[in-house]
Amino acid sequence: MTSTLIQSTTVGPAAVSGRPAEAGLSASVSESLAAALRRSAQLERRIGEDPRSFRILTGDRPTGELHLGHYFGTLRNRVRLQDAGAELFVVVADYQALTDRDTARALDEHVIGLVTDYLATGIDPGRATIFAHSAVPELNQLLLPFLSLVSTGELGRNPTVKDEIAQLPSGGATPRTPRGAPDGSAIVSGARRQASVSGLMFTYPVHQAADILFCKGNLVPVGQDQLPHLEVTRLVARRFNERYPGAGGPVFPEPDALLSAAPLLLGTDGGKMSKSRGNAVALRATADETARLIRGAKTDAQRRISYDPASRPEVSSLVLLAALCLERDPESVAEQIGDGGAAALKATVTEAVNERFAPLRARRAELAADPGYARQVLRDGSARARTVAVATLEEVRGAMGMRY
Ligand code: ATP
Ligand code: MG
Hints:
Radius of gyration: 21 Å
Bound molecules: adenosine-5'-triphosphate, magnesium ion
Number of helices: 17
Strand order of the largest sheet: 1-2-3
Oligomer: single chain
Shape: globular
Largest sheet: 3 strands, parallel
Order of helices and strands: HHHEHEHEHHHHHHEHEHHHHH
Low-confidence stretches: 1-26, 171-188
Mean pLDDT: 87
């Protein structure tokens, strides 16, 4: 299993990201991606030597169904690390679902669906802690000291927050429709948009720092869009440790991001595959739905299929998807399709996805028949996460001189 990752992380950023050279992706983002890929390769070596030295925290917003981007971007790594012996915490980031919605409608359904996806993917509640951050008040209390450690200027420069703000429809203090919902009137200047987003949206990277640091997570398997947030977490940890040196040494680790072979899988419209952009193939999709969605995926006019992420991002992301499902390298998949064009490429991808995910989908259907089980897993995990958060908050208050 490790070899898949070593292979993936030793190839250059252009080969794996899908679109490192796209317009709008600043040089500093490409540089930080390249640095994160090099770092991930080093981390893979350390994971191979001593997986138990890692405590993993990662999670997802309950905003819709998990998709293939999640699977290859982070879920598969979570399960691999868990199976290798690392301690795994998975947060259902329910407060963060409210960053771009002003209603909690369908939240319960999404939360239970998310936990069901985790279980179907192989996250084992006997070894891993799956929790909702709204159920862990002590985690959320960390947000207060953490907010004092970052400036609004630093938050405003976060490229992922800027991108997510750009996806919002225009409007009042909180957005009226889910992020990414088509809205032709949404051409509003960046500054105006930023002024109208909620404080929660603006500060959610700091909230994520609390999610990661409450359990002293030191490794975070994520997609490329999360790299700027990880930098915020590292900054918060560093500044906290400098400002409040604990009696027994630094209170927090500076966690690393772990990227996979697919740090940015593209959706059917050529943008990042996202739950809330209507461009995703859900993990639980049927074989027919998968075929229909992939048939409609954006490609280009060249007949010969090649793997060239920098100049052919959409075609290359499809090739990569087939390659990941088939556990082959993308160049050989492209070579085999050759002059078959987009139709042959899409047929290959559809078959590969449907074969690869058939067992997971069957497992998911069985689990979905008993939603009470997922609910119980979440309750148990939240209780366990809470004991960890209580201990960390106690340490934080001690370091800050707030134990009266
Ligand atoms: P939303 O549209 O609601 O933001 P999302 O699809 O972007 O949903 P998140 O819950 O924001 O999903 O992200 C969960 C995790 O999955 C993060 O670690 C993120 O980096 C990773 N991820 C999401 N989309 C992709 C993708 N297309 N490729 C690789 N990783 C991804
Ligand atoms: Mg997202």
